[in-house]
Structure to design on (224 residues):
């Protein structure tokens, strides 16, 4: 079983839709959870970072972590064409320096 | 402006050739990383360095080499032993410690001629 699973999509939505992106992980030892956004042929940029179960909100973005189900989500409200990118989840055990990345979900928001 | 600079943006390798990808950061970060990204594969860790003059292998180090002689520089050499080098290479840095928020460069696309 892979450490982290992420549906690669692609996901296509109309402008203004609510987007839900998800990852599951296999090991309850993971403590830190991140979402990165990557525009085409660019480096990823950190979007959301959390280390506890529950929700964390930043503008139109909400990161949700359910440690009991080993499930993390990123919600985008009022999606915009500028949100079109690949979204990568990343998880970390905490005591070492290695992040484990999901394969990324390609999102397209159509005007 | 602080950030990570990768060069070149595009690189072509001939058969049997070693090529070196440059990565420089002015964020004063202790830790630096090299990732490889293939379509549909996500990011895979090649090498990382937590401190000057020290580095560790990641998940796919075979065919690659690195050096960390200066805090701000972490070049990656793709050797002729790497038989499938075509990929998008990303350099990243972080402050260090257990909160691993990575800052990425803009990447180098390496292709084989």
């Amino acid at each position: 079983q892979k450490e982290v699973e992420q549906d690669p999509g692609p996901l296509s939505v109309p402008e203004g839709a609510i987007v839900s992106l998800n990852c599951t992980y296999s090991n309850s030892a993971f403590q830190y959870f991140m979402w990165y956004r990557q525009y085409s042929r660019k480096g990823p940029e950190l979007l959301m970072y959390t280390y506890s179960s529950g929700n964390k909100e930043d503008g139109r973005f909400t990161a949700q972590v359910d440690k009991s189900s080993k499930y993390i989500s990123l919600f985008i409200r009022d999606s915009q064409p500028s949100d079109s990118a690949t979204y990568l989840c990343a998880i970390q055990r905490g005591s070492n320096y290695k992040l484990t990345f999901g394969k990324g979900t390609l999102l397209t928001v159509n005007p | 402006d602080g950030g990570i600079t990768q060069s070149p943006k595009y690189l072509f390798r001939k058969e049997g050739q070693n090529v070196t990808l440059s990565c420089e950061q002015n964020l004063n970060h202790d830790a630096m990383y090299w990732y490889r990204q293939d379509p549909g594969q996500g990011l895979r860790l090649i090498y990382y360095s937590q401190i000057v003059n020290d580095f560790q292998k990641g998940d796919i180090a075979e065919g690659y080499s690195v050096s960390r002689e200066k805090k701000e520089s972490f070049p990656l050499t793709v050797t002729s032993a790497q038989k499938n080098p075509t990929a998008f290479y990303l350099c990243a840095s972080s402050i260090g410690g257990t909160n691993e928020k990575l800052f990425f460069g803009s990447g180098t696309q390496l292709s084989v001629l």
Notes: Chain B touches chain A at residues 4, 6, 31, 33, 40-43, 45, 48, 50, 58, 88, 90, 92, 94, 96, 98-107, 109 (CB under 8 Å).
